[in-house]
Write a structure and sequence with these properties.
heterodimer, A: alpha+beta, Glutaredoxin, Glutathione S-transferase Yfyf (Class Pi), Chain A, domain 2, 2 domains, four-stranded mixed β-sheet, 4 strands, 58% helix, 8% strand, globular, B: alpha+beta, 12 helices
Amino acid sequence: MAEVKLLGAWGSPFSRRVEMALKLKGVEYEYIEEDLGNKSPLLLKYNPIHKKVPVLLHNGKPIAESLVILEYIDETWKTNPILPEDPYDKAMARFWAKFLDDTCMPAIWQIMWSKENQREKAMEEAIQHLKTLENELKDKRFFGGETIGLVDIVANFIGFWLGAFQEASGMELVNKERFPVLCRWIDEYVNCSVVKQNLPPRDKLIAFLQSRFSASSWKY
Amino acid sequence: MAVTLLDTRVSPFGMRVRITLEEKGVTYEYSEQDLRNKGPMLLEMNPVYKKVPVLIHNGKPICESLIAVQYIDEVWNNKSPLLPSDPYQRAQSRFWADFVDNKVYFPGRKTWTKKGQELEAGKNGLIESLKLLEGELGDKPYFEGDKLGYVDVALIPFYSWFHGYETFGNFSIEAECPKLIAWCKRCMQNESVSKSLADPQEVYVFLMELRKKLGLE
């Protein structure tokens, strides 16, 4: 029985974050793909509260919620730390990770799924938040400095998924004119080896998103 | 002063930070903020959210209550540790604190900002969450064991808001979750908690003012 198992979903940025951290630290794990339309007894047993992926199982004990899992991984496997040592720098990394999940991501979702007359307002809000993020990045190579850290891992949906959304929908939120610094980070990020290995196949993701968009009546 | 806290008396998020500072015996300057007329200090120290609480340590701000609580726990680590030392237990504590943020505050908020079906949905959501927390507490005196810990600090401030939720939602939390109320009273026996929580009546008056502005009163 493998010591480390991960219940995940191929297209989920939350699930891929955990894989990125495990691979970065050279942790061997067994991956179990979950069908989110037909949740397995295993998932319901190990995450009864939220019934979501990812769930990490370490020696049979479950941990849920991607940010919680990432901190657990960092504390358990010390190679290639993803959080800074200094308590203030650590607090800042946690702040930006939370900003990405609580503020940026919902604002981007809003554009995708809002009605036509509310889309412009949703775009403005998302642009504002991404500008705040870009301002934090400034001239650093990554949010974590010279190497990727917690914030870069959590920003995977901006680094990769957003581009796929844009191509699937025809919506353009992030481009070089509007976000030169963020685009520079995206290029560095997707070319980084540990990131490259932990992204879903782009064509498959775009096809999946296109089918989701056409199944709803969403049109951009 | 080395430590300043920008806060409002009734904020449950602010109470978390106050409890933590008291637990650790940290001397700090408290600065009550007027959220209807935000001061330059708040806007400078929390430009992203413009909210309280903001902890300022040696001139550097830390925003978001649970991030501030963890920061204080890490810096003043010689006394009253709030997070467990074992990584798995720490993960469980973080999970439940995150649960409080998402599944207690937001449903609770509906009980005083909404009417009719939306209010009922909020009330039921809140009760469901409190029951899950009660289950997680079990027979332990506190969430992490024998003494006040991270999850206790994350949740106990909402005790001062229960009276408001109950009055506007027309229900009794004690009737639904007696063990949780017993835990609340146990927490209040800690001076750090009793000093930091606002009086339920003060919170109720505050919520009434907000409700008037929302046209609910």
